[in-house]
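Dear colleagues,

For the upcoming journal club I promised to circulate an example of a predicted protein-ligand complex. I picked one with nicotinamide-adenine-dinucleotide because it came up in last month's discussion. The inputs are reproduced below in full, followed by the predicted structure.
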Amino acid sequence: MPFEKTILCIGAGYVGGPTMAMIAAKCPGYKVTVVDINADRIRAWNSDHLPIYEPGLDELVKETRGRNLFFSTEIEKEIADCEIIFVSVNTPTKTFGHGAGMAADLQYWERTARQILRHANSNKIIVEKSTLPVRTALAMERILNASSGNTRFDVVSNPEFLAEGSAIKDLDTPDRVLIGSQETPEGLQARKAIVDIYANWVPRDKIIESNVWSSELSKLAANAFLAQRISSINSISALCEKTEANIDEVAYAIGTDSRIGAGFLKASVGFGGSCFKKDILNLVYICRSYGLDTVADYWQSVVKINEWQESRFIRNMLANMFNTVAGKRIALFGFAFKANTGDTRESPAIYVAKGLLEEQAEVVISDPKALSNAPKELEGVEGDMTFEPDPYAAAKEAHAIAVLTEWNQYRDLDYERVFESMIQPAFIFDGRNILDHEKLYEIGFNVLAIGKKPLKHF
Ligand SMILES: NC(=O)c1ccc[n+]([C@@H]2O[C@H](COP(=O)([O-])OP(=O)(O)OC[C@H]3O[C@@H](n4cnc5c(N)ncnc54)[C@H](O)[C@@H]3O)[C@@H](O)[C@H]2O)c1
């Protein structure tokens, strides 16, 4: 039986893979193909070892792959064959030229647009899935329609709000799906085609429609707001440490105000991930380019606080360990930027590991899912570092443990056994506030958490 709709996704990464697996699962009548220039990644998507870890992803891919979900490197052929193209390529921060370190690097995106233009032989709806600067759709439509002959391209914005670590749940029951388009008859028709896909499983009142610029900007703004909450609570954590207020109590008291809400108020060593920093910097860049310097400064301070929180964590370790960690073994519990993912991009653990190595510590990195990515993040960094999947082995004969990812398994370790195996006095720096600090103190640890009174035996 022929498929009802043919959908292509360009970019088989953390967004493209899971999102398309969900569409294939929810819409068995659609043919969904995911392509990438990275042949290794496509090979992994077609194997038993998927290129990314997400709870529930293996099962979803097993159910759909070969039925109506396909992974391929034949980009040109797939462009020609499909009706709707989701573009989910990476949009990192520019590292060169004008806007370096701030603006989004749109080279992958533009290359994709030109490739679509070259190989499309029928009308297509192009869906911006990548996070892009506001008004990119205009540039995209100009490139696509400048020399398209009789082929028509409509660009729709459909930013992705999934969070790594809970991607499958977020895609299955999203808070909302946002779809923006031009408000012309053709634009509205293209918008409806994308709404119809999601309406297969998302309640209609959770599918928000808007103009294309609102949709593009909402994604940047949403990430900026999320990161801002973390920087806000982290800034207060520093004050807690000076005043004996307890950050968990303060966060609870703030979060019970229904106008504020409880989510995203967990103090920590800092936020990481591939998106928050790059999207805020992009927002800052856009604001500056429109002459809105005060607005730009406001959002830039969110990144500044995050960097300060990371460096404060290292300074705190040093100060408590008698101002030197040279030659001391320090176990890092967690290297992923958050729990339930193997993704290490912009992880605060990178910063902490580098800082400790600069101080000539012996750094042992442990993580249940991120040990294949961790060495890549530290490539070229000098110093004594090892990678050890077993946290007990990592902590053996260490002077200190730093908890850098909120993996559940670190809550449940036998800390008496850990304590016995360490050099005394033994320290735990809980950069995620996930451990039972009183209990650890009773065992004999010196416990330094974020935004809390130090529990020390001397
Ligand atoms: N990771 C997240 O949690 C998340 C959440 C929401 C939005 N986003 C946004 O989604 C976009 C993709 O993010 P990601 O984390 O999936 O990135 P990623 O780096 O994991 O994946 C992008 C993929 O695109 C491929 N690619 C690049 N150029 C290509 C081309 N011309 N043709 C075919 N494939 C090409 C790359 O090889 C790579 O596999 C970014 O804009 C990001 O900001 C990410």
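Two points we might discuss: The two ends are 75 Å apart (CA to CA). The pocket of nicotinamide-adenine-dinucleotide is lined by residues 10-16, 35-38, 41, 75, 88-91, 108, 111-112, 130-131, 160, 162, 164, 274-275 (CB under 6 Å).

See you all on Thursday,
B. R.
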